[in-house]
Fold Metallo-beta-lactamase domain-containing protein.
Amino acid sequence: MGSTKWTPSIPSGATVEVSVIDTTTYLTKLDGALVVDPVYPGYEVMKIPSFSFLIHHLPSSSRVLFDLGLRKNWRTHLSPHLLREITALPFNINCEKDVADILTENGVSPDSINAVVFSHHHWDHVGDTTRFPSTTRLVTGPGYKEKYLPGWPADPKAVETTSDLYQGRETVEIDFEAGASSSSCLAIEGCQAYDYFGDGSFYLLNATGHTTGHLNALVRTTTAEAPEGDTFLLLGGDTAHHCSVLRPSVYCPFPATFSPAPGNDDLNSSCPSKRYTSIHRASNQSSSTAATVTSFCKLPEFNPYDEEIAVAKQTLDKIVPLDGADNILTVFAHDDSLMDVIDFFPKTANNWKTDGWKRQGHWRFLAPLKVDE
């Protein structure tokens, strides 16, 4: 990948089994200006998925879902205020199944899900929790309940949340400020973290900015004793909607040659990176290396989705070092660049490093760009 490698400081711990679920939620004909700045030729119109993640903690026999995509009955069960808002948005919305359906089809009972962690409250992440038993608790970030609950129709004026998702079940906010009073609270490379199972296998990260209480997660996929050493998945939620806003970076700069070439399924393919640095927004800077260590795009300054854009940028900056680590694979909730790279549920993602997913997928976001051959 890049010419430099570094390893972030993360405490040792156990692993969980993790699977990436294609929720069948897709936003199509999406205006690229909503997710990237600048909009290079090739980024004008996008189609993005919405992922959920099944985390299985074997020692406690606990199953946790991180995000749920969109609910299948969204046209009839979202608030009328929200329906008016999202049907006017400049993209199409498709959803064929609830995550509960996908679990059942693959032999996992929704009754076995102990908790659902919401990265945030947006409609394309919270799914339909009524498909799970009342014993399935909801886990959210700090400030979530005060700002977004009880939801519609319990609150007739509520726009973005629906009360049926929360009624009759426990909703728990993660407290990142417990400090020394809780052994579960720590910091990972400047990110406030909460050790969910208490054994270093599944960390929730404070990632506010996109919304109040927005969460990321760091999932340990192999341990130091494994041939590949400690490895992790970074579940990025909506900290970004496109990998171009955090790559390249000083932690993983452009190499002189991409191998494989972005978007090429032949792992032996290659192409010079100058094909892309020549169109990079930093290509005119006096520094000859600026385009190799500066993200291709920025978060759009005036998009309608980030509640606090300045805070969202700070959160993005905090995860750039994690994304650049050789032993961490970042998977944002809407990362279309990984669709043809990773294995989806019911397969697990724990062997991602051995299977070469990062090598194949890290620069794949460049594939749609129109560049000179």
User: Anything to note?
Assistant: The two ends are 21 Å apart (CA to CA).
